[in-house]
């Protein structure tokens, strides 16, 4: 079984997963989203931003580095959470 781990696209997480996978080889994917998104993501933005700001360039660089160590990255898009934009 491979685990899917939540992320705020912190580069230190990749190092931790790399070390963890050397021993257990159990993390296969990382998922996350930008703090603010027109699509929505199912998480409260204020809870994400209190850990630091990041942008699409951070996500892109994080994804490239994750791929180098054999980890997939999934971007969360929760269209059920549009903050009443559908109305």
Fold blueprint:
Elements: E1 3-6, H1 11-23, E2 27-32, H2 45-49, H3 56-68, E3 72-75
Parallel strand pairs: 1-2, 2-3
Describe this structure in words.
The model has no long low-confidence stretch (mean pLDDT 82). The longest helix has 13 residues. Strands 1-2-3 form a three-stranded parallel beta sheet, covered by helices on one side. The chain contains three helices and three strands; from the N terminus they run βαβααβ. By secondary structure, the chain is an alpha/beta fold. Helices cover 36% and strands 16% of the residues. The radius of gyration is 14 Å and the shape is globular.
SSE sequence, one letter per element: EHEHHE
Total strands = 3
In the sheet with the most strands, the strands line up as: 1-2-3
In angstroms, what is the radius of gyration? 14 Å
Number of helices: 3
**Structural class, judged by helices and strands?**
alpha/beta
Nearest-integer average pLDDT? 82
Distance between the termini: 41 Å
Fraction of residues in helix: 25-40%
Shape: globular
Low-confidence stretches: none
How is the biggest beta sheet arranged? 3 strands, parallel
Determine the strand fraction and express it as a percent band: 15-25%
């Amino acid at each position: 079984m491979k685990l899917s781990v939540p992320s705020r696209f912190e580069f230190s997480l990749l190092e931790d997963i790399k070390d963890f996978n050397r021993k257990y080889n159990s993390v296969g994917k990382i998922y996350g989203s930008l703090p603010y998104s027109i699509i929505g993501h199912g998480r409260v933005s204020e809870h994400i931003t209190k850990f630091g700001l990041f942008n699409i360039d951070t996500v892109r660089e994080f994804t490239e580095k994750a791929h180098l160590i054999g980890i997939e990255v999934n971007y969360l898009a929760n269209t059920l959470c549009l903050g009443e934009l559908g109305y």
